[in-house]
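Final report, results section. Input specification for complex C-07:
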Amino acid sequence: MDLRLGVPAPATEQERAAVASVLGPAASGWDGGDRTPADGHMAVGGRAAREQRHLLLPVLHAVQERIGWISPGAVDHICARLTIPPAEAYGVASFYALFRTEPSPVAVVHVCDDVACRADGAERTCQEMERRFGPEGQGAAANGSGVTWQRSPCLGQCDHGSAALIQHAGADPARVVLAPFDPEQVRAALVPGTGVGSGGTAVPQAAADRSGLRLLRRVGQVEPGSIDAYRSAGGYEMLRRAVTAGPQGVLRELKDAKLVGRGGAAFPTGVKWEAVATNPVREHFVVCNADESEPGTFKDRVLMEQDPFALIEALTIMGYTCGARRGYIYIRGEYPIAESRLVEAVRQATDRGLLGADVLGEGFAFDIEVRRGAGAYIAGEETALFNSIEGKRAEPRNKPPFPAASGLFGKPTAINNVETLLCVLEVLRIGGPAFAAIGTANSTGTRLFCLSGAVRQPGLYEHDFGVTLREVIEAAGGLRDGRSLRAVLLGGAAGSFVGPDALDVPLTMEDLRVIGATLGSGVVVVIDDTVDVTDLLVRIARFFRDESCGQCVPCRVGTVRQEELLGRLARGAPLGSVQREIELFADIAAVTRDASICGLGQTAVSALSSALSLNLVGASGQADGGRGLA
Amino acid sequence: MSAVFVEAPKRLVDVTIDGATVRVPEGSTLLDACRQQGIDTPTLCFLENLTPVNVCRVCVVEVEGSRTLVPSCSRKVEPGMAVHTDSDRVRTSRRMVLEFLASTVDVSLAGPDVGRWMAEYGADPARYGDPAPPHQAGQRDAARPGEHPVPDGSAAATVAQPVKYDNDSYVRDYSRCILCYKCVEACGPDAQNTFAIAVAGRGFDARISTEFDVTLPDSACVYCGNCIGVCPTGALMFASEYRMRRDGTWDDDGQTVTTTVCPYCGVGCNLELHVQDNQIVKVTSPLDHDVTSGHLCVKGRFGFEFVQRRADAG
Ligand SMILES: Cc1cc2nc3c(=O)[nH]c(=O)nc-3n(C[C@H](O)[C@H](O)[C@H](O)COP(=O)(O)O)c2cc1C
Ligand code: SF4
Ligand code: SF4
Ligand code: SF4
Ligand code: FES
Ligand code: FES
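Structure output:
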């Protein structure tokens, strides 16, 4: 490729410095440094230069944080340094919601108005933001404050009832999470070093009877910032055990445990790891999917914030078992606290020889890199996640080939969710057969449930598989204020609504399949009779329209048509008749489910489908909102 | 003249398609197998000389045991696969893909096949209501990822927007763009290696773009026109064709196509000169040509003006 570089306004000193903070100084004029006569006597380029492409997202983050937006000059300079065509770099920068490609105020407040917060009055918060900072999305010029605000999809703080993320650019950049969120706090949060932040998620069980806790065992008991605390609580014994058992032994335990993934697809973990471990192609990679962006989900954040070393240990076991020298943790950009704890945990583990060239002195090498996402739900789809790490647009790949054959950088790759990896530690701790004895025959072990909405004690809960929805809600204190239950959104935006008649269904994979629902990422949003379900559906439809990568026609257009259709139903203004709209929706649903490339499109219609069959959809904003069309 | 390489014979694989057993070489796609059977399979983002991106999904077929439909253009045959190309599921999805596209994009120049498929599958793009008003120039290019104005559903969103006419060689009319990625592949790794254009933005706002939507003269474009050569919808068009269509003088039936060899260098690219009223109106190259695979450079593609500077013309 022949790079055509040079723009009217080249990168500023600050932009260059931001890029250099990731890449180090430029070596020569060939990669964006100052031209010297010596440059005329050499040539730099080719494959080696192009192979730095994976650094594109880290560099874009650095510029975004320092300057507040990514200018044409900055892109030009980045492209010189990384040998990327500017059109492609722009294609990447314009894909992610946390990057801005037009001049922007230094502070952007992302206010969650997604399902859980919405059921708790997010629109009132947005109105208050509008009163203080002007209309959504307008530049600082309009209000002279240096602050702009916008509505955001779920920020993974759903148990707080409201949440915001502030991106604050500058020499001392910050990402501040406020949960619960009060617009009053914005000013104070912009003062560097004031230390305002998330209140931390409630893990109510941790304060009560802890005997049933396995994945949440250490939460609230062990200081998350100290490897010594982790080790004295039994940490790193499982890695020792894994090395003693050998890769085959670990695989056997996982299969005996019948552990399946907790990230949504419920694929058997042992089978996945074995396919990579036995693949003769080298090199191998292991990846932890910490993108957690399914609306209503916050479990992985709590695990990473409260027990970061456990994830590092589990990923090390995964690397050891799968024969990988390098592991990645891809964490969503909205989780600054979890990210900094993980980075610190990696540092401490490396200092202690628990990562690096000779882990535990056992003769195997393993390193972990933490990579930050930039605001894209789709980046949690495993193949999109690989593309994102590789410095590309997070567009899912067609499967086959599956990651075990061709994953990150085209190499055999195993990828697992955070909760799945913590289950691996538990499998090794109690043994595969003992793990399989927990739960039901086909859904083994425990499961994390993210409770939000109209329950007395929202938060993260752990239960043995087999627990019913009623028990899960009761464990969270039951419904608030003596309200009655209208519905539960199970599994998040990609999941489905179930009605009160599903309260006694055990929340196992097999039982939920029978009623056409899934547990997905463990989301339980409890909806009482005060909530306008149609309004939630409109939000969900907006979510999928916003988060579709746009690659394939069924999802790119189907999510638009679904949102339009719902807009008509919510206004009580169907095209033709309600019956005609329902037929139209059936067609939209059929093609997005059946012909989309990835799970996003395939599940984008699921919430509305389920709501229609429960007769929960009606004209919005009316006293009977959500009572149904019929 | 081309050398003949004798390859090791490929293993043959048996699959059943709509009940009939079909034997194709290993590594073939389901589309190859369907075509071998003479089954008319619609395709939009597939082209023989490009890597399949399998994004349009109009070619989907049903494979027994697969939860979702699979794109025939990229899915390789496996022994024993049982494939259905005309089931209700397949017909519904093909109809809806065509309907989705035709309700958002101007497909009037997408060739006769598209109209035929739309009729065959019963696509009815009008049923989403009246189209929304077209976008202003630059409006779609400024869309931010993860945000959009919430529609009330009273009009159907489209990609309609003004034509980008910023150079003398060709125009980009993205009202006609189905986002098939072909131009990006042709400009990039599959032919030209220039990477002047890429997909930018996300979701329904995804679009083909130069960096920051700069004009083509300010981009890396070298005017090879290979993107035009692969574009299936007329979104990318010779400026000469665009002007004639605009003025109502374009006449497909009044054109002849003359195949010749490019005079500029020794590579030997075949040119197809499309001539109307004794004027060259556009230049293509055959997709199956050994030398070009349909791709040319700026000289062969656009360097024909000198032919038309005849004494009698001025
Ligand atoms: C649109 C979409 C988003 C996803 N997001 C996540 C995510 O945020 N975290 C996650 O673990 N898995 C996510 N997945 C599932 C992953 O593709 C993959 O199945 C999972 O990481 C595998 O890990 P597991 O086997 O441990 O569940 C997503 C899938 C889709 C289709
Ligand atoms: S289904 Fe949606 S998100 Fe997935 S590849 Fe297609 S357009 Fe992208
Ligand atoms: S004319 Fe050639 S270089 Fe220019 S955009 Fe098209 S394919 Fe790329
Ligand atoms: S411009 Fe043409 S070739 Fe390019 S994506 Fe659009 S329709 Fe396809
Ligand atoms: S943080 Fe608001 S819905 Fe999750
Ligand atoms: S032709 Fe197969 S997906 Fe487009």
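The longest helix of chain B spans residues 88-104. DSSP finds eight helices and twelve strands in chain B. This concludes the modelling results for the funded period.
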